[in-house]
Amino acid sequence: MSGYGCGFRPAEPEPVDGCAECAAYTEQARAAAARGDHSAATDQRVLIRRHQGAEHG
Fold first, then answer.
1. Selection from 28, 38, 31 nearest residue 4 by Cα
2. What 3-state DSSP class applies to 10?
């Protein structure tokens, strides 16, 4: 199981084309996941979703 009690795993946020901030958050999330730091990866996914809500509505 993925670590989520109910087996639910939210979809990865997609960066908005041409947005450097979206791209940076996405790259940081992927790098953290690749090194096994799932807490940092989750933090970055939260930040990109907040950014997208604020900047890309």
1. 38
2. coil
* pLDDT tens readout for residues 2-48: 555 677 777 888 999 999 999 999 999 999 999 999 999 999 999 99
Q: Please give the single-letter amino acid code of residue 37.
A: D
Residue with tokens 């997609």: 14
Calpha distance 38→49 (Å, rounded): 16
Tokens of residue 30, six digits = 């992927």
Domain ranges within the chain, ordered by starting residue? 20-55
The structure's pTM equals 0.79
Q: Is the dihedral of CA 46, 38, 16, 7 positive or negative?
A: negative
